[in-house]
Design brief:
By secondary structure, this protein is of the alpha+beta class. The chain contains 21 helices and 21 strands.
């Protein structure tokens, strides 16, 4: 390949942006001065390659604050002289001759590397400024792994490939396995990943169910090391203890989302150790296990290694027609939640001293709760949140340590609600069940401003829902979610604009069970389980495909449970067709008439 000069490539890039993406073109800064570029090398003590010098003399980086700023497909923003100096000084302070950190090895970083792009993380593209055969080569720096030089021999090569991609619409890998295509949309350049072939997915839950013997548990001793002490936290390194008034053990397990058969929840006795080990086996799908019992008018469920009882979706189910309170202790922080008849009453959380919308004041409702430490996050007068560490580290027997605070919260809960649960009641075998976690509450996302919000605002809600149903159907096809008959049936009914009830879409409906299973299978993949030969049971490609399918499942959940304008973003950002924006805009326009 004949590589064009830096100036020629910038001519082509500028011309394409000016015609197709003028807002992105405006984000390119004017040229740097020759004096500023010379000073850059002098201050950092290295020789900038000629390609970088020519590039800076065309554009002194990119304006960060600009909407639709010019990025290369890896998400990198080209730095100007000021930020090159800022980043170079930082790296000298870290890894220079008198730096604060030792360089692991020369493949990780070298003092004569110059990072010339940045992402929102500490990663970016670097130039090798060492004299030698690789002088001027472009490498990728990842903070977690170091620098790799195997993609571009020079910045001129990178800019040449960028120009070719813009002019032809051809994909560009840009140092990643994924390829990206340039999309001109509403005056901006957007790099969209090309969909890659996905493998046929295997279900870990099904593989585990067909296994001839349970796999050894995958134990994380550091997280759950038992601590001998008095009270409910005794022998638990971490736990989640939930109470529900006026129900029995089977009912509380059912509300937690236990796996069921024709007779109700599948239960069996388990000790604390047995329950934890079962929840850490790949043959059990790493599904949570809850042990349940009774104390007076209250039923309780206790977990170790999982904390389903701290989820708002679970607490709403537990408190249906009654009241429920849960205490979650992570080993570092304590969170207490109180719900009545499906509604939040209050939350006490040692990690934050402010209240979220809908939360009552925990200190007035439950007098005696420990005050928040000075390490807890707090909200400033202007609405910003100042992050903290929650609770200062302390020994297990320290009077102000995390475990002591947890014990105080347990005493307050016991006194206020009249719960008489002797600690020894949590020892020994208890009725237990494996959970298929209930569906999460759909999250409201917002699209980055690219004109789609305005288009959606211009159409009536029913027509918007029809267009979103079409997009959701396409997303389900892209991710294989539509292979499940329960999903295909609901999508078909959405297209027909039929009314759907909670019986059609709730947690216990056929669709709900299917979506819960998809999410549980995806969560199991995140453990990266191995077989008896230490071979991975799920490949990286399968793992990514499961993540995509789970994202599609939550997007469908949002379409079913949220107003369409709130559900739109989660569907559209998951689409794998890079040209879906134009398709959606056409659907909205057609729906008007």
């Amino acid at each position: 390949m004949t590589v064009a000069s830096v100036d020629r490539s910038w001519d082509r890039i500028d011309a394409w942006l000016a015609e197709h993406a003028p807002r992105t073109y405006e984000s390119l800064r004017p040229p740097a001065t020759a004096e500023a570029v010379r000073a850059l090398g002098d201050e950092l003590g290295l020789e900038p390659p000629a390609d970088l010098v020519r590039s800076l003399l065309r554009h002194d980086g990119v304006t960060r604050e600009s909407a639709g700023a010019f990025l290369i497909p890896s998400g990198d923003l080209l730095l100007g002289v000021d930020r090159l100096l800022e980043t170079g000084r930082m790296h000298k302070e870290l890894w220079g001759e008198e730096g604060s950190q030792e360089i692991p090895d020369e493949d990780y970083w070298h003092p004569e590397f110059l990072m010339f792009t940045r992402r929102v993380t500490a990663d970016g593209l670097v130039l090798d400024c060492r004299r030698g055969p690789r002088f001027g080569a472009v490498g990728l720096f990842f903070n977690s792994g170091g620098t790799t030089f195997r993609y571009w021999a020079s910045l001129a090569v990178l800019l040449h490939e960028l120009a070719d991609s813009l002019e032809s619409g051809s994909p560009l890998a840009c140092g990643k396995a994924d390829e990206y295509v340039p999309i001109a949309w509403d005056g901006e350049l957007i790099w969209e990943p090309l969909p890659v072939p996905r493998p046929a997915l295997r279900s870990l839950l099904e593989l585990g169910a067909s296994a001839t013997a349970p796999a050894p548990p995958d134990i994380d001793d550091d997280r759950v090391r038992p601590v001998k002490e008095e009270g409910w936290a005794g022998e638990y390194g971490e736990f989640c203890l939930s109470f529900v008034r006026g129900v029995d053990e089977r009912e509380v397990l059912s509300r937690f989302g236990a796996l069921t058969d024709a007779d109700g929840p599948r239960t069996r006795p388990r000790t604390r150790e047995q329950a934890y080990e079962d929840s850490r086996r790949w043959t059990s799908g790493f599904l949570p296990v809850v042990r349940a019992g009774r104390c007076g008018d209250w039923a309780f469920g206790i977990e170790q290694g999982h904390w389903e009882g701290s989820r708002s979706e679970v607490m709403r189910r537990l408190s249906r027609g009654t009241q429920a309170v849960s205490i979650f202790f992570s080993g570092h922080f304590t969170e207490m939640s109180w719900y009545e008849d499906g509604e939040l009453v209050t939350v006490y959380d040692t990690r934050r001293s402010y209240r979220m919308p809908g939360e009552g004041d925990p200190f007035s409702l439950l007098p005696g709760l420990p005050p928040h430490s000075r390490h807890a996050s707090r909200r400033l007068a202007d609405g910003r949140v100042l992050l903290g560490r929650g609770v200062a580290p302390g020994k297990a027997d320290a009077t102000t340590g995390p475990r002591d605070i947890c014990r105080k919260v347990c005493r307050v809960v016991a006194d206020h609600f009249g719960i008489d649960l002797p600690p020894e009641s949590l020892k020994g075998p208890l009725t237990s069940a494996t959970l298929l976690p209930v569906l999460p509450a759909p999250q409201v996302r917002r699209l980055r401003p690219t004109g789609l919000e305005d288009r959606m605002a211009a159409v009536p809600e029913p027509r918007l829902r029809t267009a979103l149903a079409a997009q959701m159907t396409a997303l389900a096809t892209e991710t294989g979610l539509d292979a499940y008959p329960e999903v295909a049936d609901v999508l078909n009914r959405l297209h027909r604009e039929q009314e759907l009830s909670d019986g059609d879409t709730g947690d216990e409906s056929p669709l709900g069970i299917r979506l819960r299973t998809v999410l549980a299978d995806t969560a199991a993949c995140r453990h990266h389980p191995v077989d008896e030969n230490r071979e991975r049971l799920v490949s990286y490609e399968e793992y990514r495909a499961w993540e995509d399918r789970a994202a599609a499942a939550t997007a469908l959940l949002g379409l079913l449970r949220l107003p369409p304008r709130d559900a739109a973003a989660d569907i559209l950002i998951r689409r794998q067709d890079p040209y879906c924006r134009a398709e959606f805009a056409t659907q909205l326009k057609a729906d008007r008439g």
